[in-house]
Amino acid sequence: MRLISLLSTLARRGYVILALGGLTLLTGCKKLDFWTMNGHQSTIVVNGPVARSQLGVFLVTCWVTFFIFILVGSVLAYVTLKFRARNESDEHAEPPDQGHGNPLIELSLIGASVLALVIIAVPTLKAIDYTYDVAVEDKANAYEVNASGYQWWFKFEYPSEQITGAGPLVTANELVIPAGRPVRINLRGTDVIHSFWVPKLAGKVDMIPNRGNFLWLKADVPGYYWGQCAEYCGDSHAVMRFRVIALGPKEFNDWLNKQLEPARTVAPATEQPKAHFASYKTEWKRNEAGWSEKFELNPLDAWRAHQEPDVKNENVALILQGRETFKAKTCINCHTVRGHDGSGVNGPNLTHVASRTTIAGGLLENNPEQLARWIRHPEEVKPGNKMFNGVNHMDGYLKFKNGPRDPDVRNITLTESDVTALVAYLSSLK
Ligand code: CUA
Q1: Is the separation of the CB atoms in 165 and 256 below 8 Å?
Q2: pLDDT of 29-54, one tens digit each?
Q3: Which of 28, 223, 412, 416 gets the highest tally of CB atoms within 10 A of its CB?
């Protein structure tokens, strides 16, 4: 009787737990299609051989443990039912003689455990070997890039040997790679340990200061993939993101050639239009950024559409003013716009920043509203960032002098017209 009441209590609680768990899954993961297990950062629906190999190991482990669960669960259910107390005297009876030390059972259990571990170990070792480095026969075809982790963004570098340009090509937060080719990524850390992870392609491997590390990946087809820092690295670790964009051979070369060009300079119109300051209204509370629908429907096409400047709607006078502001407000100390001004390396290289679909370390969509929000209140978007807090013992440029939330007494004040001009300038850097 006691058993039955216990079981029914458990059953009642079980329904509640299941219902709550189900609700959490359904409401919590908007971006995850529950039934197909697909989403931006799904490790179940993958697009490259390295991630597929990692998924294989995961599934082998799942099946082995599932088999053990069914086996042990069935034996438990069987003995629970067979030896249950059937009446009052059964309940108060002395337990039967306890037997242990049967060599046959002991040895078989040890043998079964070893077998289970071997079944898991063989594919695991094969996967470790496969995912460690590009296969020897594929080495000649491998493309090489350097990735460095900073608090809290990623720098990507195309070494001189890979490109026809004179120096290495430096970009940030969006790694563009050739699809269908193995890509070997040298991982470096500059401040603390970060970890490089593109769930649909490969990962995670640590980026460690003063220690070379690498991984390789391959994208089966052209695509737009979400990446994430996977090692706790300070205040804004959770929002340290990036993207990997895989392109076909021709499109990749076109992109590379365009990136190698110095920053785009707008031709001053013969008749200067009067600069007007549209104010970018933004909700700058730190909440979900809100992404355009196009990034859900076809992110790669959205990325492609982002590569060309919107010449017709540009305000040349405002752009030129923004370039002056970029110097005057000392943005050049931390950022480089190759061909224009600045040689700073503390922050991302902004030479072609407008051709990226994201800003603020892959966190915000790169559009005028979000750019204005980021420049105005970086601390609201990414707590602890260096644009706000400073770097190398320098005071933060936008840091408030008298406590938080006193925008009028910053070290460097950006007026609304400064912000508007900066946004216009940065948006012109395709
Ligand atoms: Cu970088 Cu976490």
Answers
A1: no
A2: 455 578 888 889 999 999 999 999 99
A3: 223
Rounded-to-integer distance, Cα 283 and Cα 64, Å: 50
CA 209 to centroid of ligand 1, rounded, Å: 13
* pLDDT tens-digit map of 292-334: 888 888 999 999 999 998 888 888 999 999 999 999 988 998 9
Helices 416-428 + 368-376 axis angle, to 10: 130
Residue 14's CB is within 10 A of a number of other CB atoms, namely 11
Question: Quick one: pLDDT band at residue 287, thresholds 50, 70, 90?
Answer: very low
Question: Which residue has tokens 């080719």?
Answer: 181
Q: If you ran DSSP here, which 8-state letter would residue 290 be given?
A: -
For residue 194, which atom of ligand 1 is closest to its CA?
Answer: 1
Angle value at C-alpha 278, between 353 and 324, nearest 5 degrees: 50
Q: Which amino acid is at 142?
A: A
Would strands 194-198 and 202-207 be described as parallel, antiparallel, or unpaired?
Answer: antiparallel
Global pTM value: 0.83
Instruction: Calculate how far, in angstroms, residue 243's C-alpha sits from the geometric centre of ligand 1.
Output: 14
Query: 394-403 long-range CB contacts below 8 Å, 24 or more apart?
Result: 397/329, 397/330, 397/331, 397/333, 397/334
Question: How many angstroms is it from 193 CA to the middle of ligand 1?
Answer: 7
> What CA–CA distances, in Å, run from 380 to 238, 366, 385?
14, 17, 10
Pocket of ligand 1 from Cβ distances under 6 Å: 149, 152, 194, 229, 231-233, 237, 240
Which pLDDT band holds residue 399 (cuts at 50, 70, 90)? Answer: low
pLDDT reported for residue 404 = 60
The reported pLDDT for the residue numbered 24 is 53
How would DSSP label each residue in 102-149?
-HHHHHHHHHHHHHHHHHHHHHHHHHHHHHHS--GGGGGG-EEEEEEE
d(CA 201, CA 349) in angstroms, rounded, equals 25
* Atom nearest to 193 CA in ligand 1: 1
For the chain, percent of residues with pLDDT exceeding 70: 83
Structure-block tokens of residue 212: 């070379």
Residue 168 CA to ligand 1 center (angstroms) comes to 24
pLDDT for the residue 28: 46
Query: What confidence tier does 384 reach under pLDDT thresholds 50, 70, 90?
Result: confident
Q: Which H/E stretch holds residue 50?
A: helix 49-82
Ligand 1 geometric centre to CA of 207 (Å): 9
In 80-193 the beta strands, taken as DSSP E runs, fall at 143-150, 153-158, 169-172, 174-178, 183-189
**C-alpha angle with apex 193: 330 to 214, nearest 5 degrees?**
105
